[in-house]
Fold this protein.
Amino acid sequence: MKSLLPNEVVRTVSHLLEDLDTPISLSVSLRLRYGEWDGIAEMHCDPRSYLCSNRFARDAAAIGLLKKLKELPTSHDRRAAAITKWWEGERQCYRTNERLQVYLPENRLFDDGSPAIRSFLDRTRQIVFDWIGYGPDILADGRFGPGATFSNRGGKTTVPDKMSTDPVMTRDACWHLPQWLGTQWGAAIAQRPGEISVVPGNRFTTVAKTAKTDRSIAVEPSINVFYQLALGRQLRRRLARRPHTLRKGGLPAVYKAYAHWDLDRAQDIHRQVACESSVTREFATLDLSNASDTVATSLVKTLLPQGWFEALDDLRSKKTLIDNHWVVLEKFSSMGNGFTFELETIIFAALACSTARECGGAGLLGDDVFVFGDDIIVKNSVVRPLKSVLEFCGFSLNSEKSFYDGVPFRESCGGDYFAGKPVRPYFLKELPNGPQDFVTFANGVSHLTDRLALTGESVSRRAWFSILDCIPLGVRSCRGPKALGDVVIHDDVGRWSTRWRSGIRYIKALRPHRMRVIPFDRFEGQVVLACATYGTGNYGTPERGRLRQEGVIPRDGLLSYKVGWVPYS
């Protein structure tokens, strides 16, 4: 059967699969040869079935290589799979909302429900209050995100594009209008004809996830997401606040009410704890299925202080436009909302800390509980009680990606570790198109072979050399350290192309050459002024002796690279 993938990709992947030399890798190789794409997408590697890191790392590398390739020609309808999962999340949230009705703050005077559950939820609510306070600051500084909005899609998602389009909001976000009119964005809109559009909610769409399914996200109205991002940033800052230091009887005592959990550093901490726990088995790494789409409205209302709930509730979308129909949401928010990540982190962290305290632990973030989004790390003794708590609150533990007890594997925040060895596969997510993509591909394969070597056995670099054959000679000479990223081919220091100038070492690398700049003269003067106040775009600043064109660069604005020299210390 003729392959539907480029010959150079098939050749490289085949070389790597053959060099991995396990029954699993050879099985993937045969399926690749005969075009059994569904079979490749369905394969799975369970670390619970392995005794050594080397064999698991090789099999995981073979299965993971093409698993997330969005161009893999499977028979799966990826968008339909995402829609099905979205509806499953809504049904799950509906059941959760019904179950939690009796525990809502306004129903606490009634005797319905379990006293033990009510007491647990009250303690969890107090933890959230200690972390983030009663409510947000009165004036939250809005901010623009890089993605699309309800009315801005395609290539028109730059800040001046968003400012030039009629703003869109939901009806409940009207409380932010006076503040919004005082911004430079509001002033720019006021200077031209147009009107604010009111829509019922957000718009459903999907992005690539794996070869089997897409990931569902929601595209929010522009004014909503402007302030959602502001509240998300406030939640992040509140979570990172340092604890008070109080004095009792002349002696210093630290009051640990504040979380003191910095989400900007949390991923590194998660990976470190996961690595150590794959050896000590002290902590478990837990993952939730469809977490963002199963945060039910009643749960948020039960756990969050009233001021925060009202502020977030005003800015969230209460309906979603999916397949040309408006659907009233059972969930509180979804991916695409500017505060969803911080909100779900706080909810999962509070539930985990409260459960850990019930089990006799300290229940402190960064001590015996670690949470980043839906990545949860707790002591092994807490796993089963926490699983029951999460299920009652409407969440499902992903048994395939949750590891605890004696399993010598832990996974968190993009780090996979088997008995202390990094075993993360390399995922080819898009087909390479151009020299720079092949450099990225080569580096990914190089890092994979380095990780495999750490498990005890080396793997031939035949696949790496096969990728280099696809790179023009001029670009192939751009060799350098990992610290420079994918502007160089990562190689031994003896193969770097270097030169010295004024005591500074320069390395030959791929440098951005041509950028697609949307000139400011396409936009009205008030919009350009507003962009200047937000620090968006460039304004004729000099670069290498020439003035850069005044304008803004879109997300996909990089058009080409060229070989040049970059400083390296």
